[in-house]
Amino acid sequence: MNLGFLGTGHIASSVVEGIFKSKLKIKKIYLSPRNKIIAKKLTKRFKKISISKNNQQLIDNSNWIFLSITPKVGHKILKKLKFKKDKKIISFVSTINYKDLKRYTKNKNISRVIPLPFIGIKKGPIVIFSSDKKLKNFFKHLGKVFEVKNEKVSKAFWSTSSFMAPYYNLLFTTSNWLTAKGVKRQEAENYTRELFLALSEDSINKKRLPLNKLVSNSQTPGGTNAFVLGKLKKDKFYKIQMKALNSIFKKF
Ligand SMILES: NC(=O)c1ccc[n+]([C@@H]2O[C@H](COP(=O)([O-])OP(=O)(O)OC[C@H]3O[C@@H](n4cnc5c(N)ncnc54)[C@H](OP(=O)(O)O)[C@@H]3O)[C@@H](O)[C@H]2O)c1
Fold it and tell me: pTM, whole model, 2 decimals?
């Protein structure tokens, strides 16, 4: 199977990296001539990649076309390109909905997929709307697949993907605070990464426990965790989190 990536930016290069780390059998990957620097780097690393002359050539040579352009570019270029009926279109574009994708490409064989950068290390959730056997079998090599039948639900998942930067900021604040208390910067950062990694791994290992149980099991009444959780709740930290999610949901 030949794959084509329309737009060779951050997410396309992560997906390509994941593909070559996986057991997926790919004949060829075509990249668009933009971004040239990233595309060239990828061709040097992986033999099966070649850079197409233009976007139309990429589409014509590929069985599956991954839309990895920004929404603004998508609105501009998709309607000018021809997607034959036998092409499968997989859109990573956050804010172009199914209806518009269908209208622009004049093709119904479209799925919207949410990959996240860790797909490059074959980790993390991958939401597919709407899914089929082939897509599921492909993406299960690159992370944990969540199949969604309703676009509105897929938008809710999109909203939660906005927690990457806020999550890292939580780590950053924690390590900054440690540094201010006299811990060396590198040690503070290493400690913080280990702490949050262990928490995430522990939550996966305890999959059978609902998340609210993890919250209660991690605190003793009157203890330090209970104190900090209570303080954050009182100061509306989690209400603000919900508000941010509601606001971003409206953008999708
Ligand atoms: N980053 C993420 O974590 C993530 C996760 C899920 C989904 N997405 C979605 O994936 C899409 C891409 O995101 P990104 O973070 O990878 O953005 P990005 O790094 O800015 O990549 C966009 C790519 O599109 C290229 N491009 C611009 N104009 C083009 C054109 N006319 N024809 C072909 N390619 C063109 C850019 O090339 P130049 O650099 O030469 O302009 C760049 O390579 C977005 O719609 C986003 O919503 C991103």
Answer: 0.95
33 residue type, one letter: P
* Helix pair 185-205, 164-180: axis angle to 10 deg: 130
In ligand 1, the atom with minimum distance to the C-alpha of 96 is 45
Q: What is the pLDDT of residues 188-234, one digit of tens each?
A: 999 999 999 999 999 999 999 999 999 999 999 999 999 999 999 99
CA distances to 112, 145, 150 from 129, in Å = 5, 11, 7
User: Burial, 69: exposed, middle or buried (Cβ in 10 Å; 0-12, 13-18, 19+)?
Assistant: buried
Which residue's CA is the closest to the ligand 1 atom numbered 38? 35
Which domains are seen in the chain, by residue range?
A: 2-149 (3.40.50.720), 162-249 (1.10.3730.10)
The DSSP line for 33-66 is SSSHHHHHHHHHH-TTEEE-SSHHHHHHH-SEEE
| Token pair for 86 | 């036998």
Verify whether ligand 1 is closer than 6 Å to residue 162 (CB atom).
no
